[in-house]
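User: Please predict the structure of the protein below. I'd like the answer in structure-token form so I can feed it into my own downstream comparison script.

Assistant: Understood. Taking the following sequence of 380 residues as input:
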Amino acid sequence: MSVHVSAAIAGRVGRRPEGLVDLMAEVGERALEEVGRRPIDLLIVGSMAAGPLGGVENLVPQLADRLNLEGASGVRVDAASASGAAAFHTAARELASGRAERALVLAGEKMTARSTAEVTAVLARSLAPSEQSAGATMPALAALVAQRYQHRFALEPAAFDAVTVQFRRSAQGNPNAQFPTPVSPEEVRASRTIAAPLRLLHCSAISDGAAAVILERGSGPASVLGLGQGLDALALTDRGEVTSFKATRTAAQRAYEQARLTRKEVEFAEVHDAFAPFALVNLEDLGFCGAGEAARWFLDGWTAPGGRFPVNPSGGLLGRGHPVGASGLLQIAEVARQLRGESGALALPQPPAVGLAQSIGGLGAHVFVSILGPARTEAG
């Protein structure tokens, strides 16, 4: 796949006064400037709830109009909280097919204009109808996963606390992060219970934000090496096991195979940590460690920016924030920026060559894995 990232912009995340179109147009303009406003053939837009949360419909022509891209083709992509990653995959495959030379990928979400109850209800629409009819919410089902994971591996709550502590510490160096202030394990344990065993600081916040990536045919330090998608049963009760996400394992296997890489050749990852326990599950499902081993990796500091395998050096969803439709593209942008030497204070101590981003749509029902690095020759 001879496609590479030529510009990667991660916008500021948090409570923003701008509307959704303004948020996305801002990062889009910055990306276009970065490539000298070279012509764009394709505009791919990702957003989970532009209408219900952002009050905006018909996003593609609105953004094309703002960015003077009326000559491009365009489409909006929706994959719940993985919409940003889905938009990236769509654009990369279009370019790899030869139907376009250069694509602008935009993803964004405006969430803070709605109440917590309204946002919770909208996010719950990505769950199975049977779960919705029973009144289930995303945090409630995430808590069930966490309970089962804790029981299966006889895990102490300190493991979940360590995830939040690490990612909030990493976010301290991120100028775009919603939560740049570190927290202690004691502060995590003192935060109020949302759905046991999940406490407030184990859960990502309601956020506004956007990201932009420009993809071009050809190669570079952030070339697209492998893309993988995976699906699983929508309802938790229809899955064989809830302490592991089959969709992640499937997506990872497909991405590794396309990249012709093993997990040992990936040097760092941005994973979907909407809830702290998911970081543990994801690390195991991506193959970086065995079942039940991820807690030790966090507790021993192996996943810190200076550790043996850095995870979420940007601060992740817990530290950077989680504007749902944008998060998948924000993760990919952060990986590309590390590989392109553009991460500033977030730069890893050892400059990496290969990075991975994993984004979850819904509650583990739809997962996207993206591997970026230097292009490989057919022989290599």
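That's the full token string. Residues 252 and 286 are 6 Å apart (CA to CA).
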